[in-house]
Amino acid sequence: MNEHVGHPQVLLDPAILAVIGLALAAVVYLGAALAEIRRGNRGWPWFRAVLWLAGLGCGAAAVVGPLAEAAHAEFPAHMIAHLLVGMLAPVLLVLAAPITLALRTLHVVPARRLARLLGSGVGRFLSHPVPAATIHVGSLWLLYTTGLGAAMLQNPMLHYLLLIHFLVAGYLFTTSIIGVDPAPHRASFRLRLIVLVLAIALHSALAKYIYVHPPQGITAPAAELGALLMFYGGDLIELVVVTVFFSQWYGRTRTSPARTGVALGDTAR
Amino acid sequence: MSHSSQVVRPRGVLRERSYWSAFLIGVALMAGVDEIVFHQLLGWHHFYDGATTAVGLLSDGLLHAAELIALVAGFFLLADARRRDTFSARVGWAGFFTGLGAFQLWDGTINHKVLRLHQVRYDVELLPYDLAWNAAGIVLLATGLVLTFMAVRRRTAAGPA
User: Fold this and answer.
1) Which residue in chain B is spatially nearest to A211 when comparing CA positions?
2) Is the pTM of this model over 0.90?
3) For residues A54 and A48, what is the distance between their CA atoms, to the nearest angstrom?
4) Domain layout of chain A by residue ranges
5) Which chain A residues contact residue B79 at CB under 8 A?
6) Cβ separation of A202 and B72 shorter than 8 Å?
7) Per-residue pLDDT tens for B138-159?
8) Does any domain span residue B58?
9) Between 20 and 30 A from A60 (CA), which of A50, A181, A261, B81?
10) Is residue B4 part of a domain?
11) Contacts of A243 in chain B (CB under 8 A)
């Protein structure tokens, strides 16, 4: 990474690259949704497209604009950016059912490849609640209780890599708990509930830990405000996750005999 | 046969979704009152005080997660009981008061005293506050248990259906 430090180039600015990536994701999703609507049979719910755009917007707010600027210098702003990227954006993106849209609109061969990837050992492992939650919550604890956080404030490139990591880890965790996309081997309701309880518990415990033990290079007042934001902001997003989780349970118990063999395309309705 | 149904029926109340959905709502409501009134409005409780142990931190997190989930799960379970037309308000109230009291007493004894998460109020003579806190918990819990007992009795008296 060091060779870029002396002569910054606009195109290599990671923030610009991130925005280009997010814009591409928006265009591809909307293009696929329009194609699906044009085809006429099932259409595509408009609210899923709104969720997708809102999720990408959360990601963008963490890399460009006033919040992103402040996040480099101030811990509370950094925490808001992390709530947006690691928690809120994943929930919005998961509920946008991008995999279902992809499976419906891709040509047969790439669609089959995607389905095979999801069903493969790695795909199943990463979308299982236990590994997904361990990666998601574990990396948060590592970031704030070791020197990793301080290193991140020093090195912009590491900062962007970690943002991508938290977006992906947050997505995998959220989809393992409340995913609406086809999951060939979804974990049981009980296991998902246990993992959800533990993840929320460790998240709020980490917030209190940060409150008392400011991460390296963070002043006590900044750490306290950041910890409160993490605790109560996390609560709001977790409340949404828990509500979606139980509304899925409610919807499923009503018609459990009829829906036990849910077909691929039906899950996203 | 008749006596066996008498043995099974009283336990039935404690197996009902009416009871446990309302119990969860009671727990969550009391936790909500604790958070909104005592942490936020009055500022008596502290987010964290120096006496909190590592075990306390983890148990606090678990309790917090359980409260959040109890709130949502309680309402969905209640909606499910109503949808199945098995909801009994009498049993529901019994569960609700038991939940209110159980949380309050747990909070006043285990959380405040054993785990020392925080105290009822700071810079005051603590004993009257602790007594009032736990007395409120005992009254609520006793109300819940009496209502539970009455609901069980009523079922038993109704005889085999």
Assistant:
1) B48
2) no
3) 10
4) 10-255
5) 250
6) no
7) 889 999 899 988 888 887 776 5
8) yes
9) A181
10) no
11) 72
